[in-house]
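As agreed, record minuted below.
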Amino acid sequence: SKSWIFGCGVLSKSDRRRAAVIKSYADLCASRAYPYAKYDNFRVICDWFNMIVLIDEITDIQTYEEACRTGDSVISVLRDPSQHDGTPLAKLVQEYISSYSQDCNGF
């Protein structure tokens, strides 16, 4: 899950936010929140938690206007995966939606 997040091109290897995502223990949180999830469902849940942590880390250092644009971009892709602005984060969310629909069939 973290390798997928880091492979999206949003964070460089030297970015301090990368360490914050690693230290977030999103996979542990996901396992506590969904202890009976099947493997495919759990993978998608871990991706969701990691993606939320990544978005939080990104918006933490943005201005209010930048954070609003980031949020709008993410929400836009969640509503309609074909409508994204081409940013790495929007592409990541689009990949997540694709993974969710293929692996879990709506849980």
